[in-house]
Write a structure and sequence with these properties.
With 415 residues, this protein is α+β, with helices and mostly antiparallel strands. 16% of the residues lie in helices and 27% in strands. It is built from nine helices and 26 strands. It is globular and about 75 Å long. The N and C termini lie far apart (51 Å).
């Protein structure tokens, strides 16, 4: 399949992808768009002008400031819309290609402002990479006690702060808070974090609620999962260390979590399904599943410094996740917890089996003992003010490539 919209062979946004987002321009108010090449297809205008012949759902979902209304129509509706868009954008279909409205319907991406695509009501972060959990456990408890006794029996998670989820391009100030007391001190330290870190993650978004008290099975879970984004769950390691016992992450995590502007529908990821790691010991019956539930998604972390360095510091893959998304959702709801349209679920830090595939600076520098050497002769243990972190993700087969855009964030000084 080829599109009449020009784009390079290595574009993140080919006709095989068609992710959804929210945008505005100097002359267009907030609305839904679809990325194709270096352009955004204006879905509000497309529907208004009658190009969606098979769209049997309300047109006003494309006039909303978030994708929640579109997602709430469910997976069947989104799959049908995707097929219709692929037909309209196909090089063999003249309906849109030869229309007098063609140039008005395609907005250059460089002239648009991309906004937070989802109204996130609730956010859960998991801890589902066995490599990451083993690395962190080894650092703090030693190799013999790296994994906690429950880790291989359930997808560990915690409820995070939805209000501080931000879109790519939104810069953040270095957070401040309490830190472990200095040796001999009677009071904890206080001030800006000295150990600002990233967490390379992905997140899925739900489109179908369940009733309070009802569970979602692994078999039914995919019907609730609409799409995915790149996710950077920022961490202030020194604040986190002091506060997390006994209730877990709080101010060390809640100051910001950054996501990509484009939401990739799960239908686009079908060619990239793959098997996950073998789970041993055997999981409880409610966590069993059939079929391939992991996805082969390459992930990169780039560091850009104020001095001009642009360096890839990590390369991992989503396929390494020990606990997959259907297991995470099944566990999340097994107690009857009700989920909602637009809820977001972070995968947890995605680390691979080699040191260059670790998904956090905590691991990449092994608690600062092995600094990253940069091309200008400087080094990093943790992030400095002025540093920019860029996450990238992409999938490819010999015939198909799609990317998730990027998550770009610059660190500003503490307020």
């Amino acid at each position: 399949m080829k599109s009449w919209v020009p784009h390079s062979t290595d574009s993140d946004f080919s006709i095989h992808h068609l992710p959804f987002g929210i945008f505005k321009t100097a002359t267009r108010n907030v609305r839904v768009g679809v990325a194709i090449g270096e352009h955004i297809l204006d879905m509000k205008l497309l529907a208004r002008e009658g190009f969606l012949k098979d769209w049997d759902y309300p047109q006003n979902v494309f006039s909303q400031p978030f994708l929640n209304g579109l997602m709430a129509l469910g997976r069947t509706a989104s799959a049908a819309l995707r097929r219709e868009l692929q037909s309209l954008l196909s090089s063999e279909n003249p309906a849109l290609r030869d229309s007098a409205l063609r140039d008005e319907l395609l907005v250059p991406m460089k002239s648009a402002e991309l906004l937070l695509p989802v109204n996130v009501r609730d956010y859960t972060d998991f801890y589902s990479s066995i490599e990451h959990a083993t690395n962190v456990g080894t650092m703090f408890r030693g190799p013999e006690n790296a994994l906690m006794p429950n880790w291989k029996h359930l997808p560990v998670g915690y409820h995070g702060r939805a209000s501080s989820i931000i879109v790519s391009g939104t810069d953040i100030h270095r957070p401040k808070g309490q830190k472990t007391p200095a040796e001999g001190a009677s009071q904890p330290g206080f001030g800006p974090t000295n150990l600002l870190d990233i967490e390379l993650e992905m997140a899925f978004i739900t489109c179908k609620p369940n009733a309070l008290g009802a569970s979602i099975s692994t078999e039914a879970a995919e019907d609730h999962i609409w799409g995915m984004v790149l996710f950077n769950d920022w961490s202030a390691r020194d604040i986190q260390k002091w506060e997390y016992v006994p209730l877990g992450p709080f101010l060390g995590k809640s100051f910001a979590s950054s996501i990509s502007a484009w939401v990739t529908p799960m239908e686009a990821l079908e060619p990239f399904r793959c098997a996950g790691p073998e789970q041993d010991p055997e999981v409880l019956p409610y966590l069993t599943y059939s079929g391939q539930k992991n996805y082969d998604i390459d992930l990169e972390v780039w560091l850009e410094t104020p001095s001009g360095v642009k360096q890839k510091i990590a390369h991992s893959n989503f396929k390494y996740m020990y606990w997959n998304m259907v297991q995470q959702l099944a566990h999340h709801t097994v107690n009857g917890c009700n989920i909602n349209v637009g809820d977001m679920y972070g995968s947890g830090t995605i680390s691979g089996p080699t040191p260059d595939s670790y998904g956090s600076l905590l691991e990449l520098t092994w608690r600062g003992s092995k600094p990253i050497q940069l091309t200008d002769g400087t080094e990093r243990k943790f992030l400095q003010d002025g540093d920019t972190i860029v996450l990238k993700g992409y999938c490819k087969t010999p015939a198909v490539r799609l990317g998730f855009g990027e998550v770009r964030t610059t660190i500003l000084p503490a307020i």
